[in-house]
Amino acid sequence: MREVFHQSLEDIQARLVEITDLVAVAIDKATRAFANSDVALAEEVIADDAHIDELTISLDELAIEVLARQQPVARDLRIVVFALRVSASLERMGDMAEHIAQLARLRFPERAIPKGLKGTFSKMGERDVEVARTLSELLRTQDLRLADVIRNADDEIDELHAKVFEKVLSDNWKGEPTATVDATLASRYHERFADHAVAVAKKVVYLATGDWAAGEEDIALAAEAHDEALRATDQL
Description:
Helix content: over 70%
Shape: elongated
Order of helices and strands: HHHHHHH
Structural class: mainly alpha
Number of strands: 0
Number of helices: 7
Largest sheet: none
Distance between the termini: 25 Å
């Protein structure tokens, strides 16, 4: 029974990585569809979001089954609860990518990005893709240093998000009402995507340290301890 239990925990963690990989693909496609008015790519993102939703539901069902049948305690319990909470954030990240793709489809054949903001949205998209790929690696490796990479990228996205609002609220803004709405919505979707990634990263840090308020030094120490544990395992 314990072997089955540990296999279930490994399955849960593997599914989290799989979903995160799909979310990374979704935001990459959505960003390119939004930038290039690629309606075919936008349609792919919109259609694939249903698969992400299905996988998160399946993961939740597995986690609940493990809770009911195995009654895990201590760290094992934290892993299962962690998976339930993280799956919700990943599902929302997929939704944010879908919303960006929907904007691209809505404005086709015109470009959804208003004039004067192409560079800003290009940078936001690049950072969101970086965040998603880094998050996938964080879940795969548990390298806590990657949590700082995600937080730093989120800070950059927040700054870009603020610039979008400064632009559309300035006296020099000549965009049509639809362009203003598109810009504010798209910027918000990009910003929320990164926020959810930060929330997941914080949960990974908590899983490793047991501390919700772990600072950079605590994360670094936990990362070193994790590396030492891996080296010790390799020597066995």
